[in-house]
Design a protein that fits this description.
The protein is α+β, with helices and mostly antiparallel strands. It has helices at about 5-25, 35-50, 55-70, 95-105, 110-125, 135-150, 280-285, and strands at about 70-75, 75-80, 160-165, 165-175, 190-195, 220, 220-230, 240, 245-255, 255-265, 270, 295, 300-310, 310-320, 325-330, 335, 340-345, 350-355.
């Protein structure tokens, strides 16, 4: 047993799929653009092994080019542009399709630079230590074994040198897992230099964190817009205590993902209409929770949770009443994939000034 998957299950999955690959390729020449990614990966591997296929190299090149266009990287997670087309009634899933794409490209010329990124990307798709289906976990075991065979950790040797400004760090391999990360303070601007001496070095993932004010929209996997309109306003062009505003947020998702949250801050003292009984239905007209699974109307923000957010455009809206006077600084409006927080979008909010009357 490896990674919780019995080896006989993984072996059976591999043998059954090989039979399907051989039958499909011998009897037809499918169009890669019309194939779901799971079948496309099977098709690529079958072309490597089934003899007597006319123009096999051209078909393989076309299929690999098509596969590359479907890979969506946001942060360290790997998504697929067509994962919503996985045939669930055939026990197929987005996780299985992504893992098969890894298996089909591991060790293939022109894909070495993608191998580690793809393997980490499918690992990030796990929830609570496993992928979404039994077959996906079986294929994941095969992918992990193949990756470990092609890129064993013991092959990393020599010394990795990192330099940023006047700071230098050296890592001599092999190293224990808890000693492989390096941290460099952002004391100044400039390039990060990484060099390797005396052997084959590791892949590196670089992440930058800085506590700086957000001055323009930040899009990393999502795009978002926020619009504020007056529903009831005492003085046009000025926010007054008692005014009612409608906030509309539109999110464009590059790929489908589960459990996504939109968080929009409100000024201190404001009340989100709809969280109490007997509030005016007129003031709530035109508002929409969209496809949310749950809405939280808190004292500091409106939050909408999507159990499933498909690729494409999604719009939510709510209304709030301004109850306090003063100038209020608001954090950014944010949308985030809860299991992959590096996939997000943020839109800064200007300070809000509310007068008594």
């Amino acid at each position: 047993m490896a990674n919780g998957i019995p080896s006989e299950i993984a072996s059976r999955a591999r043998k059954n799929t090989w039979f399907i690959r051989s039958s499909v390729v011998k009897k037809a020449s499918p169009n890669p653009n019309e194939m779901p990614t799971s079948s496309l990966a099977d098709f690529i591997v079958a072309l490597d092994h089934v003899p007597g296929i006319a123009n096999a190299n051209a078909l393989k090149t076309n299929a690999l080019d098509t596969l590359r266009t479907r890979l969506v990287y946001e942060g360290t997670r790997l998504d697929l542009a067509d994962q919503d087309k996985a045939a669930w009634w055939l026990m197929s899933s987005g996780d299985e399709s992504a893992i098969k794409a890894v298996i089909a490209t591991l060790g293939r010329p022109g894909w070495n630079d993608d191998s580690a990124r793809m393997m980490v990307g499918v690992a990030m798709r796990q929830e609570r230590g496993h992928w979404d289906t039994t077959t996906a976990n079986a294929w994941g075991t095969i992918a992990a074994r193949k990756f470990a065979g092609l890129y064993p950790a013991s092959a990393i040797m020599g010394t990795t040198n990192l330099a940023f400004g006047n700071q230098n760090i050296s890592k001599a391999w092999p190293l224990a897992a808890d000693r492989r990360a390096a941290h460099l303070p952002l004391a100044r601007s400039g390039p990060l230099m990484m060099t390797q001496t005396g052997g084959s070095g590791p892949w590196a993932t670089v992440q930058v964190s800085a506590a700086v004010p957000l001055k323009q929209p930040l899009f990393a996997g999502y795009k978002m817009t926020r619009k504020v309109e007056a529903v009831s306003q005492r003085v046009a062009g000025r926010y007054t205590r008692g005014d009612v505003l409608k906030v509309t947020i539109t999110v464009d998702a590059s790929a489908e993902r589960n459990w996504v949250v939109i968080s929009d801050p409100i000024p201190a003292g404001a009340t989100i209409i709809g969280d109490m009984a007997n509030q005016s239905q007129l003031l709530q007209s035109g508002t929409s929770d969209g496809e949310t699974s749950y809405v939280e109307r808190a004292r500091d923000a409106w939050r909408g949770y999507f159990g499933w957010m498909s690729a494409g455009s999604h719009t939510v809206s709510y209304t709030m009443r301004l109850n306090g006077a003063g100038t209020f600084s608001l954090p950014a409006t944010r949308v985030e994939a809860m299991y992959s927080p590096s996939i997000n979008a943020q839109v800064p909010n200007a300070p809000v000034t509310i007068v008594m009357k």
